[in-house]
Amino acid sequence: MANASAFIDIPASAEQVWRLIGGFNSLPDWLPFISKSELSDGGRVRSLQTVDGLVIVERLEAFDNAARSYSYSISQAPFPVTDYLATLRVENLESGQTSRVTWSGRFTPVGVSDEAAVELFTGIYREGLEALRANYPD
Question: Is 21 helix (H, G, I), strand (E, B) or coil?
Fold first, then answer.
């Protein structure tokens, strides 16, 4: 099992950031490489389409609005991993005017080294968080 993680600090309260990213269907609102998201199975499954036309299907595994976090697994994707489980979390930093968003995942690489899989997901998380940060100018 391998792990990847990235975080970013954003000049907005955790509540403000959670309003943007806390919906399981909200990825197209802040993640530029996701062009479309459709929910099924009572809102617990999202089918994503990337700007390149790839399809990713994810299942909501845990949701905690009070803690501003959710976890999801991947059931279909072009990634070289299995047993994928990721968590997106938003927390207030000391001032309450800044928040930290952490995106982390664990997975089992298939056909690639642990290092290659970790590098892939760390890059995805970093790029996604940088795109999120662009929604909050200083």
Answer: helix
